[in-house]
Amino acid sequence: xxxxVDGAVVFGGGRVxxxxxxxxxxxIKQAAEKLNMSYRAAWGKIKATxxxxxxxxxxxxxxxxxxxxxxxxxGKELLNLYKQYKKDVITVTDSVFFEFxxxx
Length: 104
Description:
Largest sheet: 2 strands, antiparallel
CATH superfamily: Winged helix-like DNA-binding domain superfamily/Winged helix DNA-binding domain
Order of helices and strands: EEHHHEEH
Oligomer: single chain
Number of helices: 4
């Protein structure tokens, strides 16, 4: 299950994993390594999502003790809303499935 804008993927399981890994590690590089992907692939997914939504979702800080990355408030909101959406869709789908196929 994923979200699209004009037929292009905006958010789904892979991006959820990437955003969660950024939250956990505080780094796009470390998040990418954790998910066995290149930094370039991770950054490409982030940029594509930001461009398709017109929102800044990940804030990078280069150099010094504060180098790394973190989700912006909108990035955190998107991650949390998507997780709740997925949970609710699964609950409703299970209910409808049982309604139709409870005899089987």
